[in-house]
Amino acid sequence: MALSDKDIDRLRQQLLKRREQLRWVVHDTLLESKREDFVDLAGQVHDAAEESFADLLAGVNLAHLDREVKELADIEAALQRISAGTYGECVDCGTDIVLARLDAYPTAKRCQPCQARREDSKRGGRDATPSL
Ligand SMILES: [Zn+2]
Q1: Annotated domain spans of the chain
Q2: Strand, coil or helix: what is 96?
Q3: I need a surface site. Which of 4, 56, 105, 110 has the fewest CB within 10 A?
Q4: Using one digit for the tens of pLDDT, what is the confidence trace for 8-48?
Q5: CA of 112: how far to CAs of 35, 57, 78, 117, in Å?
Q6: What distance in Å separates the CA atoms of residue 92 and residue 33, rounded to the nearest whole number?
Q7: Which residues pair with 89 in a beta bridge?
């Protein structure tokens, strides 16, 4: 792995900070929904263990939380890759993701070329995925 402990630590702090921000957004949005079950859930947002937080929200079908929930899942996945020692490696091709990219997107799991390829195939629709 090309990342130093110091880099990893800095990126980890960024991820944790962002997660905390997102938890507040989720918390407030749940409260504002004025739905009893969601308001209940809001009370658990800050107590939930890291792993169960995503599960907690899986049952929340609030369209305007989609982006936050997805980003939180990405953050959890990135933190797990840090624990597993695979953080900073592209999940598709295994090369090291450049540090500048990780600084800009700490949740990045693909190197830029792989991400671009993926977005190309997405644009072309499901059937455009190469069968390699
Ligand atoms: Zn790659």
Answers
A1: 5-128
A2: strand
A3: 4
A4: 999 999 999 999 999 899 999 988 888 888 888 888 877 76
A5: 41, 30, 16, 9
A6: 39
A7: 96
CA atoms within 13 A on the CB side of 95: 9
* Six token digits for residue 105: 């997107």
Q: Residue 89 C-alpha to ligand 1 middle, in angstroms? A: 8
Phi and psi torsions of 96, nearest 5°: -70, 130
The one-letter code for the residue type at 70 is: K
Examine the pLDDT at 1 and tell me if it is beyond 80: no
Distance from Cα 109 to the centre of ligand 1, integer Å: 9
DSSP assignment string, 12-29: HHHHHHHHHHHHHHHHHH
In this prediction the pTM is: 0.79
How far, in Å, from the CA of 102 to the mean position of ligand 1?
Answer: 13
CA 25 to chain centre: 15
